[in-house]
Every structure is written in C-alpha cells, then in structure tokens.
C-alpha cells in the first residue's frame, strides 16, 4: 500500500501541468498559450526583449538588455536579474526611435535588468492571464507583470490603455502602516483616458499573502467591460467600463476591447518606487532577482468569461 501511494503521489507531481489544464478545462476554461520555462533557454518564438536605457519614462535607473546575465531559464524558471553595473544603450524605446534626433541617441545607467515582451508574437482580447512568480525585496525594487495594446488603435499612451496585472515596490522594507511592519502591498491598475499628459489611472492595492518572499499567482479575469484582479486565485479588485474611458473612442468598453500583449520586467528605482516606502533608493544587496515559474493564458469556452469565472478555481 505504501508503494502504491508513493507511485500515485509521484505521478500526480509529474503530471501537475496536465492536471491543471484538465481542472481548468472542466470549469470551462481553455488553455490557449503558456510557457512553463521547462526548456534550456528562453523561447524566442514566444518572447522578445526590449533593449534600451530609457528609464520607462519614470526616471528608472536601469538599462534593459537581452543578455543572459539579466534573463535566463534555470531549473524550470525564468530568472530576471537586476545587476549593479554600468551600461550604455539606446536612450529611447523602439517605438520612439523613428522620431527626429532619437534614432542614435544613447544613455548610460548604473544598473542592468531585463524586460521580456510577447509583442508581435502573442496578444489576447479577454480571458484569464495568470503568472506564478516570486518577487524581489528592497527599497527601489519594482517588479511588474503587465499588458500594453498590440496597436495604438485609440491613440498613443494612455488613450489605447495599459493593464497592470501586478506591480510591487519596496517589498520587505519597513512600513509603519503595513501588516507585520514591513511593506507587503501589491497593486493592480488601469491606465486610460487621453494621450499623455491627459492620461488617467485607477487602481487598487492589497496585502500580499504570506510569505512575502514566496511564490504567488498573480492574475486577471478580463471580459468586455470588466476586469478582476486576483492573487492566489482570490479576487481583490474589480474595475468596470463605467470607471474608464478612451478619448479615441465612444465605445464604453474601449480601450480594453483590443488585443494586448504581455510584459515581464524588473525595474530599478523610478518615481513610484522612490516616492513610497522609506523614500529614495537603496543600492545594497544586488543582484535582485525576480523568478517566474510559469505563465498561462486561458480563454472561456462559454459565451462570456462569466460563464467560466463563476465556477472559480485557479491553476495549481
């Protein structure tokens, strides 16, 4: 009996991905895209890299590179490493380099990191997007899991929208208003409205379940006119179409009615991180590591996402 139980347990562990897919399919969800990071290298058929030293428009301190020092697959996980090392690269993101005077401009930063994107390779309109990740800690760390529109149908940022599935800044630092006295909050936010500087945003935050330094599943359930944020399968925020808008469209669902691609990155410093927590930036303890166990995108077999989401559940 003991041997039989052991064999069954091992089989369940080895078949975990298939079991998760079967569980979700039974609830009406269909797995349409995933990366389990089980290969020997980052799958370039699924991911591209943004390479620049722009600073994200937030005065971030890193250059994003496509080097193995900053992003690699190890032990079944994607590992993004922010390192304290000087680097020089394009001063503007790819989308701006066609503008006069920007094509050959260079910038130098004191840190390097990585930003992986599915832009041009995979994008989705509606569904359930989940990422199991372990986040870095320290004043000035800014890991993010987010989405941008595949095309600027309604105008440049933020008229065509931005969906922030997960942002966290300064995890683990002292926080007098946080549970346990340390920063443990995560954020889920939408950006919309007009083109910058007429952009708007609306978001919520929640305490990250313990342990703060462990793996958690961050996700959204996205349907026309409604987006729900989840952590470890539990909803913590909801936005509906009456709360957002786009100056480029009269459709109340716009701009969140178009295909969006996925982004995984670890920023260093920048406005949001340096304005919160202990304020400023702490350059000790580098490299800082963000680990991603898997990324899964599900879509509903029913007529609406609610046909599936009402059954609950999360991929294990």
Concise structural overview:
With 316 residues, the chain is mostly beta strands. Helix content is 11%, strand content 40%. The protein has helices spanning 2-14, 16-26, 271-275, 305-309; strands spanning 29-35, 48-49, 62-64, 71-74, 77-90, 106-113, 115-117, 127-134, 141-149, 162-167, 185-193, 199-207, 215-223, 226-231, 234-240, 260-268, 288-300.
List the helices and strands and how they pair.
Blueprint: H1 2-14, H2 16-26, E1 29-35, E2 48-49, E3 62-64, E4 71-74, E5 77-90, E6 106-113, E7 115-117, E8 127-134, E9 141-149, E10 162-167, E11 185-193, E12 199-207, E13 215-223, E14 226-231, E15 234-240, E16 260-268, H3 271-275, E17 288-300, H4 305-309
Parallel strand pairs: 3-6
Antiparallel strand pairs: 1-17, 2-7, 4-5, 5-6, 5-17, 7-16, 8-13, 8-17, 9-10, 9-16, 10-11, 11-12, 13-14, 14-15
